[in-house]
């Protein structure tokens, strides 16, 4: 399956549909990195993807750094926004998370600690084009 290179959303409902379609590309043992300005919809997108795997109550791990969820898949949801150094990731067991092939990892603000990301990942860049309008750009790295 090929991931689309980009798509536009004019509402939260459209973003939810994009997230639903994207969920077909989600695989355990893989990482999905989301970048975008504050309020661009990174957490909302992840929440809508994970709903397709029977995971509810998804919220931003800004203060916890990582949230773990279980549904029809296991998911780790990271937020790098408050991190200053890569060592902070290693202090919470980053390598263990990376080596868990039974889970999918979602990382918000991955661009802030780019050197911690594996080569094999999917990146989603979200641009704010208006109050509710967003542009989603997808890239798959092997």
Describe how the helices and strands are arranged:
Blueprint: E1 6-9, H1 12-22, E2 31-36, H2 42-51, E3 66-70, E4 74-79, H3 86-91, H4 94-98, E5 103-108, E6 121-128, E7 134-141
Parallel strand pairs: 2-5, 2-6, 4-5
Antiparallel strand pairs: 1-7, 3-4, 6-7
Describe this structure as you would to a colleague:
The protein is an alpha/beta fold. The chain has a single domain (6-141), classed as P-loop containing nucleotide triphosphate hydrolases (Rossmann fold, 3-Layer(aba) Sandwich), CATH 3.40.50.300. Helices cover 23% and strands 30% of the residues. It has helices spanning 12-22, 42-51, 86-91, 94-98; strands at residues 6-9, 31-36, 66-70, 74-79, 103-108, 121-128, 134-141. The chain has a seven-stranded mixed sheet with strand order 1-7-6-2-5-4-3. Helix 1 (12-22) crosses helix 2 (42-51). The two termini are 14 Å apart. 27% of the residues are buried.
Short description:
This protein is of the alpha/beta class. The protein has 4 helices and 7 strands; from the N terminus they run βαβαββααβββ.
The major beta sheet can be summarized as: 7 strands, mixed
Our Rg estimate from Cα atoms comes to 14 Å
**Low-confidence parts lasting 5 or more residues at pLDDT below 50?**
none
Structural class: alpha/beta
Strand content: 25-35%
Q: Architecture, CATH level 2? A: 3-Layer(aba) Sandwich
Question: Looking at the structure, what is the overall shape?
Answer: globular
> What is the CATH domain class?
Alpha Beta
